[in-house]
Amino acid sequence: MSDEAPWLIVGLGNPGKEYAGNRHNVGFMVAELLASRTGGKFGRAKRAATEVAEGRLGFGGPKLILLKPLTYMNLSGAPVVALAQFFKVPVANVIAVHDELDVPFGEVRAKRGGGEGGHNGLRSMSKSLASKEYARVRFGIGRPPGRQEPADYVLSDFAAAERKELDFLIDRAADVTEAIVAHGVEWAQNRYHGV
């Protein structure tokens, strides 16, 4: 199994303490949990503006390269493509973990390819990879209440009621990510959608 191509798991977010608890940073939160599960430790990459952790899924399982871009969201693609090329990761083995306005809070969904739905991190990744055919773990944050602008909503912290469920949902998103690596997107969809 160790001969297989590695997987590049991209937790999308913005660098800096002021963004740490934002809805837009849930990708970072999931990447950090995956690093702790696989025994990886994040450190600054020499080749790109990103933090990287390496580990394996299970004993002798596929190699995982976990990535937290240190560029802002709309420039996430450059470090992703730099590390995909360095580690020889095919687009089919790239997974983006990101917040999703079009999925209700409390739901985590998997998919491969498709549009970016106005998500600047995905748009940057698609452009840099010259493909949309990477997998996505879509962490539902729902639509903003009232007339709040989506841009302000994604850059705000989770509400108190949401924070009570947040650890469970980050855990679920990490499970979905691991399921994609182990069994593929379709299997993950059948296992986790509507649960």
How are the elements arranged and paired?
Elements: E1 7-11, H1 26-38, E2 43-44, E3 50-56, E4 63-69, H2 77-86, E5 94-100, E6 108-112, H3 120-129, E7 135-140, H4 150-154, H5 160-183, H6 185-192
Parallel strand pairs: 1-4, 1-5, 5-7
Antiparallel strand pairs: 2-3, 3-4, 6-7
Helix pairs in contact: 1-5, 2-3, 5-6
User: Span between N and C termini?
Assistant: 30 Å
Could you say which overall geometry the principal axes of the C-alpha atoms support? Answer: globular
What's the pLDDT, averaged over the residues? Answer: 94
Percentage of residues in helical conformation: 25-40%
Oligomer: single chain
**How does CATH name the architecture?**
3-Layer(aba) Sandwich
CA radius of gyration = 15 Å
What structural category do the secondary elements indicate? alpha/beta
> pLDDT under 50 segments (min length 5)?
none
Largest sheet geometry: 7 strands, mixed
Question: In CATH's first tier, which class applies?
Answer: Alpha Beta
Percentage of residues in DSSP E strands: 15-25%
Tell me the domain tally. 1
Instruction: Report the strand count.
Output: 7
CATH fold description: Rossmann fold
Number of helical segments with 4 or more residues: 6
Describe the protein in words.
This protein is an alpha/beta fold and 195 residues long. 36% of the residues lie in helices and 20% in strands. The protein has six helices and seven strands. The longest helix is centred in the C-terminal third of the chain and has 24 residues, at 160-183. The protein is globular. It starts with 6 loop residues before the first strand and ends with a helix. The model has no long low-confidence stretch (mean pLDDT 94). The active site is at 24 (proton acceptor). TRNA binds at residues 19, 72, 74, 120. InterPro entries: Pept_tRNA_hydro, Pept_tRNA_hydro_CS, Pept_tRNA_hydro_sf. Its EC number is 3.1.1.29.
